[in-house]
Amino acid sequence: MISILDQFEQGVESRIKTAPTSKQLLDESFDRDADLQGIPILSKKKVNFSPSDKITQLLVSNDYVVLVMVNNVLLRINLKQDNIEEIDTFKTSSLKVKQLFLDPFGEHLLISCGNINSSQLFYATKQLSKLKPVGKYQGSEITSVAWNYDFKVKSTSSTTGPILLGNSSGTIIETQLGTEFDRFFQGSVVQYWKEVFDISKGQPIPIIGLQYHRVGKSDLFYILAITPTKLYQFVDIIFNKDERPMLQQIFNNYLTIPERFYEIPTVVKHSKLHFYFLNNDFTVPKYFGFLTELGVFVAEVDINKDEKTIFSSHELIEYSRLYGRDDDDFTVPLSMTFTRYHVLLLFPERVIAVSLVAPSDRTASQVMDEDYCSDSYGRLLNITKDLMTGTIWLYAERAVFRYKITKEDRHVWKVYLDKGMFEEAKEICINNPYRINQVLIRQAEHFFNSKQYENSALIYANLNVSFEEIVLKFLHLNEKKPIKLFLMKKLGGLNSQDYTKITMITLWLIELFANELAVLRNYKLGKSQEYTTLQESFKQFLAIPIIQDCLRKNWESIYDILASHGDVNFMMWLALENQDYKRVIQHYLNEENIAEALTLLDNHPFSELFYTFSSDLVEKAPAQTVSILIKQGQKLDPLKVINALIIPNPSERLALEIIRYLEYSIHCLNCHVESVHNYLISLYIKYNRDKLMNYLKLQGREISAVSYNPEFALRLCREHQLGEACVQLSIVLGLWEAAVDLALTISVELAKTTASLPNNNIELSKKLWLKIAQHVVKQNNDIEQAMRFLEECKFIKIEDILPFFPDFVTIDHFKDAVCSSLEVYNKDIQNLKEEMEDATKSAEVIRSEILSFRNGYMLIQPSNECSSCHEQLMTKAFYTFPCSHCFHAECLIKEMQPYVDSSTINTIKDLQNQLNTLYQNNKDISQSLEAINRRDKVKESLDKLLAAECFFCGDIMISLIDKPFIEDADFEKIKHEWE
Q1: Coil, helix or strand at residue 247
Q2: In which band, very low, low, confident or very high, does the pLDDT at 165 lie, cut at 50, 70 and 90?
Q3: Which of 23, 235, 751, 834 has the maximum number of C-beta atoms within 10 A of its C-beta?
Q4: Highest mean pLDDT among 49-58, 86-95, 596-605, 946-955
Q5: How many helices (H) and strands (E) does the chain have?
Q6: Which residues form a coiled coil (predicted)?
């Protein structure tokens, strides 16, 4: 079903192309409102309603329409329910409807009626279908009503709340109307009725417009009233809002003081007082206005409690200047209403939208759009606005239209821009990237031209303009703060992907900061508050996350910048903040500040720092450096540390400290790296030989167990003539003879100790002891000492050393030894004889057992079965074993086949074939001896392979002890069978 007052937005919106919002373009080729050039601001559509007679008046509030026709018929239309109600109360009456007054919520209706002799006032509500007279009021005609805009009144639609009425005599009446009073006051809808103020001062002056409002949620109220030549303002506080009449409290203050009014051009008779509210917030009026004979009076609401004024300035939009030129022949509008940026003026043949923002150029037109209307529906009567919904209605004598306002701010931003009202222009262009960019450019230029460089820089940084152009503007300035602000703001708007731009701007800003600090230092202001503040700003800048990433990738460039300005302290701070300890320690070393370097290294133990600087630090502070290295424990790799501690020709003090760390690495860290041990040995040999032998002894004699290189150590010891160490190292290398020879050059006792070590090798020990004996006998000619060797070493006999004695030696020196040796030999001979006799007896026993075994036999019963196939044994050729197991020959081969190699099986089969062939060729009785011998040999070979041992009791079965009874492949199958 088509609505009585159908909507027409679709028709208008279909002509507007919606710009894409996924990507905001800022270049001049894209303007979000470019498609609106052919679309008017004002566009109307006739609503689906045809009145039965000519319309005289129409009001709309909160989608509730009240209209009166020339025949005095009153129609009330609820747009939300498409419901039309007709009231023809005045058809038979002599009264004519003069004015309608509908509250902003559409709940209460006042109708001013009259004739030549009298005037009456009627009241109705949305729920009340019958008009009720307001008491017996028959005074002057009611010309204006100031409704109560409190939303609490809307929630209780049975009463209007306190309202003000203005009549044609200049009297202001306060009253409260409602249907709830009908029960208590003999049918009256009036709760109270009070004349609170008289503007006329004895001369009847009609009140053309009347409004009152409360300022927010405060106790401050203001009242506006207009007469043909004056605009009255009443401002004051109401202390008791429950008192009735309530608004009389304001007027009472003006009984002793003159009321405040403003002289205005003559107000046209049909004018009304219009307010505009932002976002339908009735507590915050934006501006108000009304029609005069010369122009539209417009003033922005600006309450001043102390001066008791409602507005501070006003503007008269002259009709003669609407089109930017003087025109003496102008027409006064029939009606007006406000939009956000325009006042809509109704003329007899058209509606025009006049900008509320006056252009800076007086020759420019304020008319932004015109909508011409035909006279086919009669003459135009009025234009009105629904304050709740914001819709605008136009009606003629026989038609009703509804206006659509399309992007009314499309031109206003330019006016604001030309007048330098940048904030207002930005508010309008907030959703249009191109236009907001243009506004910001103009604002930035304005700030720059007025020498507000910092504000200009902040705005330029957000604009889509040439970076180089803006930078050049600021580079010409003596002060560098604007360029810094511009670059910092620009940097904040970059993405992490813009690495090149970030790097360039960051380095530039660092250069600017460093230069400012250097200038202050040059002026001896390095300790001033200004310097400290600037330094803190620099630190805060460097702490920005995006800057941190840039710093990590451009350390060298940044340090070069700081170094070029001589800011060493800040370089060190920056390096410490970013944990660039390598650079800090290097700086301390360059400055010979070893203590600070060691402290930093101790407090920030990074492994790479130790590896890098240990070499320099240990030369300048050996003990402290080694102590710090030891303190790190397993955090450091000893091999890498040693690489740093390898110093050519170190001093004794330094070498001893290096030895201390090497010993710690070996004994505490269990370091077995060969190079570490080799280095320690080399230092022991040169600086602490006393510890060398202890070290070698701790390492042991097994070459596989030592951690050092024995060949390397032996070479060093030989170069430094360390005989005892060479003996120990020769032992490790297995050079026993060389070790003994070398030991003999030192002492016989050392040689004896060396020779006694290889106890598990008798021949070697004997050989080594003989070397010692030969040395003692030949070199020392000490026969007695040689004899003592016979007692010390059990491997050497007297006959072994006799060849070493000289020919002149008498037997008396070794007679006892010879006798002892002969006695030993005699005992050995006797033992050998006894062993031979025992062996002969054992051989005879074995020989007799073999003979008895050859003559043994087994008794085979006819019922005996094969242990494999369990068939009668006698049916086929078979083998029987002493364990009583018996097998058919072919069963035995079958059983053995899986467990012997294929060559053995092939040999068995070949012997069987040969045996079968020999039996077939020699079936006759007269067989040659050669054939029999050949057959016996083949059979003997076959028996050796098959009957060497019982299959069940021999080695084959023993080797299968770990084999499962059921193979893995057959397990599942057998498992399912049992299930």
Answers
A1: coil
A2: very high
A3: 751
A4: 49-58
A5: 35, 30
A6: 815-849
Helix axes 889-896, 929-946, angle to 10 degrees: 40
Contact 453, 432 (CB under 8 A): no
Edge-to-edge strand ranges of the sheet holding 209-214 = 209-214, 220-226, 230-237, 260-263
- If one compares 174 and 577, the residue with the highest pLDDT of the two is 174
Please give the CATH architecture assigned to the domain spanning 42-408: 7 Propeller (2.130)
User: What is the rounded distance in angstroms from the CA atom of residue 217 to the CA atom of residue 283?
Assistant: 8
Alpha helices in 855-901 (DSSP H): 889-896
Query: What's the full length of the chain, in residues?
Result: 979
- φ, ψ of residue 382 in degrees (nearest 5): -165, 160
Element spanning 43, H or E? strand 42-46
Give CA 522 to chain center in angstroms: 44
- CA 146 from chain centre, in angstroms, equals 59
Q: Given a cut of 90, is residue 26 above it in pLDDT?
A: no
Residues contacting residue 726 through CB under 8 Å, at least 6 positions apart: 714, 717, 718, 742
CB 289 within 8 A of CB 297: yes
Instruction: Give percent of the chain above pLDDT 90.
Output: 20
How confident is the model over 330-346, as a mean pLDDT?
Answer: 94
The pLDDT value given to residue 12: 39
In contact, 375 and 423? CB cutoff 8 Å: no
SS3 873: helix
Distance CA 652, CA 596 (A): 25
Cβ–Cβ under 8 Å, residues 116 and 170: no
Q: Which residues in 907-930 are b (16+ Cβ under 10 Å) and which e?
A: ebeebbebbeebeeeeeeeeeeee
Given a cut of 70, whether residue 401 has pLDDT beyond it is: yes
**Does residue 119 sit in helix, strand or coil?**
strand
- Any residues with CB less than 8 A from the CB of 500 and at least 6 apart, and which? none
The reported pLDDT for the residue numbered 641 is 80
| Contacts of residue 893, Cβ cutoff 8 Å, sequence gap at least 6 | 905, 908, 912, 946
Give the pair of three-digit tokens for residue 932: 């029999």
Name the CA dihedral angle for 191, 194, 196, 201, rounded to a multiple of 10 degrees.
150
How far is the C-alpha of 162 from the C-alpha of 247, rounded, in Å?
8
Sequence-distant (6+) residues with CB within 8 A of 669 are 633, 634, 638
Find the distance separating the first CA and the last CA of the chain, reported in whole Å: 80
pLDDT score, position 803? 59
Distance CA 673, CA 679 (A): 10
Going from N- to C-terminal start, the domains of the chain cover 42-408, 748-813, 878-919+932-978
- For residue range 927-966, what is the model confidence (pLDDT) as tens digits? 577 777 888 888 888 887 877 788 788 877 777 777 777 7
Give 152's DSSP letter: H
Helices 545-553, 529-542: inter-axial angle, 10-degree rounding = 80
CB-CB contact of 877 with 889 (8 Å) = yes
Phi/psi at 438 (nearest 5 deg)?
-65, -40
> Is residue 364 predicted with pLDDT exceeding 70?
yes
Structure tokens at 213: 């409002």
Task: Flag the least confident range among 24-28, 301-305, 820-824.
Answer: 24-28
Closest C-alpha to 107, from 178, 208, 212? 178
Separation CA 65–CA 75 (nearest Å)? 8
Which residue type, as a one-letter code, is found at position 799?
E
Decide: 134 and 112 in contact? Cβ < 8 Å. Answer: no
Residues paired with residue 220 on neighbouring β-strands, in sequence order: 237
Q: How far is CA 170 from the centre of its chain?
A: 71
Distance CA 211, CA 275 (A): 9
**Which three-class secondary structure state does DSSP give residue 137?**
coil
Q: What is d(CA 914, CA 879) in angstroms, rounded to the nearest whole number?
A: 19
Instruction: Give the max Cα distance, the chain.
Output: 185
Tokens, residue 780: 């020392």
Residue 361: Cβ within 10 Å count: 11
